[in-house]
Write a structure and sequence with these properties.
This protein is of the alpha+beta class. The chain has 2 domains: 243 residues, 2-Layer Sandwich (BirA Bifunctional Protein, domain 2); 93 residues, Anticodon-binding domain (Rossmann fold). Helix content is 40%, strand content 21%. It is built from 15 helices and 16 strands. The chain has an 8-stranded mixed β-sheet with strand order 1-5-6-11-10-9-7-8, sandwiched between helices. A 5-stranded mixed β-sheet has the order 13-12-14-15-16, with helices on both faces. A 3-stranded antiparallel β-sheet has the order 2-4-3. The protein is elongated, with a radius of gyration of 28 Å. It starts with 14 loop residues before the first helix and ends with a helix.
């Protein structure tokens, strides 16, 4: 019978890698906490209409990439991004009736049917934040500052912040007219999707991945020339706030982001270390989304950060978030009585948070020592009839070979803990 394999565009996160994921997720949570954001958890699937209304029917996500199923009379879609579902949850559960701004973050899996490549999967994981209630540029600067601080704490370098403003609906109405005038003479040269977008939402042409459409659009009008006075003032204030905070940025008028709900500020943190798909974080304002999903008009903004892409960037740059912890002590029993004692000691050690293991395979002494070395045990302790009779055993530090005789009494666990901590402190001092 043939071995079944995982679906194309998905990955298995094996135990050797999961500790790095845990370290990254913990860093994300603690950094978000310092900015006053609290975690929210939402369903993996939503009504399809949520994404059509929220993300936008002319986007690649809705047109080409969603995983949608019909269950009896209802149609559901696996979430392709986190914002729409989070805003739905905030509305349905009354969070926007509480003190504003509301600050939430999430770590979740998303699903998009697109061509798998490095850092871009069909099932991927995303960290995101959403802030609802503030229309002021200070909120934009705060959210951008949070994203930058996360990237700094994680250890990503060679990253640049690119910002743009895509204005309000009034600005975009004038801009759309300019884009149509520019692209209309080239209509027949555009891809089929962009020909349709030219009528419905011409800004989406600027986000097309087709080389032909990209070449046609290289000299297209830029949105910054069509901003109204209020949107222009908002963008200028944001730039001033970022400058005051020492956050370097580049104004990039070609950033439009791939989702229709964005308004005014849009931004990306990009790197050249992972090839053409160099965006490690992207976000912006979506002041009309809450009303579009049935709530009272409420300004909001946020960002999303792909974890696979972030880890890929770290690996390309040679950064390691967390070394595998490994086993603190492996107790090597010889004989049935010693095996019983070893099981008791490992249970006591584990209760104190010490990673302890003992044999459950019936291996020989030599095989057990080989296994202890393979799993990276810091200490080993052989336990046989002589050790039980004498009430003491030899503890061996595997890396240095140093040996220490310890009593097998009721203070063994606390004594080992003191030895292990002292050893770690000595190792840290030597590293410094």
């Amino acid at each position: 019978m043939a071995l079944l394999k995982r679906p194309n565009g998905t990955e298995d996160i094996l135990p050797a890698a999961s500790r790095e994921w845990q370290a990254l997720e913990q860093l994300l949570r603690t950094t978000a906490d310092t900015y006053g954001f609290s975690e929210i958890r939402i369903p993996t699937f939503e009504q399809t209409e949520l994404f059509c209304r929220g993300v936008g029917e002319t986007t690649d996500v809705v047109q080409k990439e969603m995983y949608t199923v019909t269950a009896r009379e209802s149609t559901f879609t696996l979430r392709p991004e986190g914002t729409a579902g989070t805003i739905r949850a905030m509305l349905q559960n009354g969070l926007l009736n509480e003190a504003l701004p509301q600050r939430v973050y999430y770590i979740l899996s998303c699903f998009r049917h697109e061509r798998p490549q490095a850092g871009r999967l069909r099932e991927f994981h995303q960290f995101g934040v959403e802030m609802a209630g503030s229309p002021h540029p200070a909120a934009d600067a705060e959210v951008i500052g949070l994203a930058r601080q996360i990237l700094e704490r994680v250890g990503v370098h060679n990253v640049e912040l690119h910002i743009n403003s895509i204005g309000c609906p009034d600005c975009r109405k004038r801009y759309h007219e300019a884009l149509r005038s520019y692209f209309m003479p080239h209509r027949e040269e555009l891809c089929e999707t962009c020909q349709e977008r030219l009528d419905k939402n011409p800004m989406r042409l600027l986000d097309c991945k087709s080389p032909v459409c990209g070449e046609i659009g290289k000299d297209a009008p830029v949105i910054l020339d069509y901003l109204c006075e209020e949107c222009s003032a908002h963008f200028e204030k944001l730039k001033a706030l970022l400058t005051e905070q020492g956050i370097a940025f580049t104004v990039d008028p070609r950033i439009v982001r791939g989702l229709d709900y964005y308004t005014r500020t849009v931004f990306e943190f990009v790197t050249t270390d992972i090839g053409a798909q160099g965006t490690v974080c992207g976000g912006g304002r979506y002041d009309g989304l809450i009303a579009q999903l049935g709530g009272a008009p409420t300004p909001a903004l946020g960002f999303g950060m792909g974890l696979e892409r972030l880890l890929l960037t770290l690996h390309k740059q040679g950064t390691v978030l967390s070394e595998p912890k490994g086993c603190d002590i492996y107790i090597v029993p010889m004989g049935e009585a010693a095996a019983d004692k070893a099981m008791l000691l490992t249970a006591q050690l584990r209760q104190e948070g010490i990673c302890a293991q003992t044999d459950v395979m019936g291996r020989s002494l030599r095989a057990q020592m080989k296994y202890a070395d393979k799993i990276g045990a810091r200490y080993t302790m052989v336990l046989g009839d002589n050790e039980l009779a004498q009430g003491e055993a030899v503890l061996k530090q595997m890396q240095s070979g140093e040996k220490l005789t310890v009593a097998l009494d009721d203070k063994f666990v606390s004594r080992f803990s003191d030895i292990e901590i002292a050893d770690r402190l000595a190792g840290a001092a030597a590293a410094l």
